[in-house]
Amino acid sequence: MGSTNRITGLNSGLDTESLVTSLVSSYQKKVDNLKGNQKRMEWKQEAWKPVNSAFTKFYNGPLDTMSMKSSFMKKTTTSSNKSAVSITTKDGAMNATQKMKVTKIASSAFTTGGKIEGATSGSKSLADLGATKDPETGKYTLTINTGKMATDSEGNSTGSIAEATKKSVTLTFEDNATINDVIKAIKGATIEGSDTRLNANFDEAQGRIYISAAATGDASNFSFAAGGVADALKLNEGKYNEGTDAEIWLNDVKYNDADGTFDINGLQITANEVTEQEFSITTKTDTSGIYDMVKDLLKQYNEMIKTLDTAYYADSSAKYKMLTDDEKYAMGEKEVEDWEKKIKDGLLSKDSRLGEVSSALKAMMQGEIEVTLGDGTKQMMTLSTFGINTGSYLTTAKDERGVLHIDGDSDDIVTKNNEDKLQAMINSDPDAVADFFSKLAQNLRKGMFDQMKGTEYSSSFTIYEDKLMAQQYSSYNSKILDATERLNKKEDAYYAKFTRMEKAMAKVNSVQQNLSGYFG
Questions:
Q1: What are the average pLDDT values for consecutive 10-residue runs of the chain, which has 520 residues?
Q2: φ, ψ dihedrals at 254, nearest 5°
Q3: Neighbours of 270 (CB within 10 A)
Q4: What angle do CA 202, 204, 210 make, to 5 degrees?
Q5: Contact, 87 vs 77, CB < 8 A?
Q6: CA distance to 40, 93, 265, 282, per residue, from 89 (Å)
Q7: How far is 288 from 303, CA to CA, in rounded Å?
Q8: What phi, psi does 389 have (nearest 5°)?
Q9: Distance (Å, rounded) from C-alpha 406 to C-alpha 294?
Q10: Phi, psi of 317, deg, nearest 5
Q11: Closest by Cα among 230, 232, 192, 191 to 211
Q12: Hey, which of 11, 43, 61, 432 would disulfide with 505, CB 3.0 to 4.6 Å?
């Protein structure tokens, strides 16, 4: 409001405020309309966000992976002896049935030391256990040898480290050293030129030391040089289990691996159990995986297109005017909420940009694609070739007309009883199916990217003119300010006129009162 000194109709008896409000109603309406339009613009920006999010979610979802044909050609490998091996099938695996056998599994070298008499605690000293010192250094010593076990002419272990791979480290201990000190030193031992690391533990209840290699395989083997600490702690008097490489035979060819996992011709085979008899492993294309990928692609597409079309085909909000503060005050809270919801729900109804995006997506999905069949010939195909179509135009709701259905899909009540052409095509020519849908994904990815390119009016990865709308929203601030100033000035002008009238009538009334005094 302005700063004019406003005098109400005390002398005239007029309802000045109502009169002024009526006189400036056109100016007030201008302010209300501008505020309403700005609020509507704000709501429209909010309405676009979930639509844009649905679009980008689909773009960032399955399209990248599915645009590669290899993604469809998933393969699985099964074994007739499931406990013997675990198999992971990679992209390069060949469809084939192969024979194999597991003759060794990977194991770690392990020593169970002899019982140390009188050792009931790890704090027992080496001196008390009768350990002898090295005459040259005058200290207690323990030499650890690591390396692959030597074998005889028949490939059997001789029980000793092969000189060609033998590596050693000598640990030294002071006079007050204990069993615990030895255990700590063994676990921390680093042997130059060897990858062998040892785990060690002293079991006080058993009076024995247990030592194992951290890794598996032939190279995990170790031994202790006789004498000194080794003799006092009975490290060479217990039981030693040799570390071995895993060994398998695949199609009569032998393979060895230290950790028991073999990468052979696209298969990652882990040996779990030695077998006496040969068994088979079979690799084939996972047709169920192809079907699931197509179904997932269509499911996510349907979710997106339904979001876009629901907004596009909503009842228009044009017939619902924005409420002024006075109108809200006159209505109940629930009435206001329902009224505004009708506006918000229909803000994108028949929006030209939204319609353009939706139509572009549908055109991409319905287009023809040249496919290479399994026999090398080429053929033009569409989604309909695979029994994938939209519902009947006449019986399907407007916001459902873009949704795609797979004939024979048991989860689709609309088409589950139809012939399953997709599954039949996968069974007969999975390469053709993979070719079609990878190209479809490529087309969608490119087309959707083009729809999201940043422009002067829109940000990157945005399908609506968010920049322009933000500018338009801001421009209302100055328009509202100008309109409000005009309203205030007009109000001030009318109040000034009524004030002058009231003052004039006050003088007339005063004169009349004075005259009546003369003739009273």
A1: 53 74 89 93 95 94 84 87 95 91 96 93 94 92 89 75 87 94 93 84 96 92 93 93 95 95 96 96 87 92 96 92 90 93 94 96 95 92 95 86 92 90 92 92 95 92 94 94 93 85 77 65
A2: -85, 140
A3: 18
A4: 30
A5: yes
A6: 56, 6, 10, 11
A7: 22
A8: -145, 165
A9: 10
A10: -90, 0
A11: 230
A12: 11
Cα separation, 106 vs 194, whole angstroms: 19
Contact assessment for residue 357 and residue 447, using Cβ atoms and an 8 Å cutoff = no
Residue 116 CA to chain centroid, in angstroms?
56
- CB-based contact 220:246 (threshold 8 Å): no
For residues 94 and 285, the answer to whether their CB atoms sit within 8 Å is: no
pLDDT score at 1 = 47
Q: What residue type is 423 in one-letter code?
A: Q
pLDDT of residue 108: 94
Beta strands in 58-95 (DSSP E): 75-79, 85-89
Phi first, then psi: what are they for 151, rounded to 5°? -125, 160
Q: What are phi and psi of 244, to 5 degrees?
A: -130, 150
Distance in angstroms (rounded) separating the CA atoms of residues 230 and 209: 11
Token duo for residue 271: 């040996």
Length of the chain, in residues: 520
**From residue 67, how far is each of 70, 92, 365, 445, 453 by CA, in Å?**
9, 18, 14, 8, 20
Give the count of alpha carbons within 13 A of 240, CB side only: 19
Asked if residues 197 and 183 have their Cβ atoms less than 8 Å apart, the reply is no
**Amino acid, res. 62:** P
The residue written with tokens 């619902």 in the block is 320
Single-letter code of the amino acid located at 421: K
CA distance 222 to 367: 68
- Phi, psi of 367, deg, nearest 5: -70, 160
* Token pair listed for 421: 């052409």
Phi-psi group of 252: left, alpha or beta (phi > 0 → left; psi -120 to 50 → alpha; rest → beta): left
Question: Side chain identity at 363, as an amino acid letter?
Answer: A
65 residue type, one letter: T
Residue 261, class by beta-carbon neighbours within 10 Å (0-12 exposed, 13-18 middle, 19+ buried)? middle
Q: Are 236 and 226 in contact (CB under 8 A)?
A: yes
DSSP classification of residue 219: G
The pLDDT value given to residue 9: 54
Residue with tokens 């059997």: 156
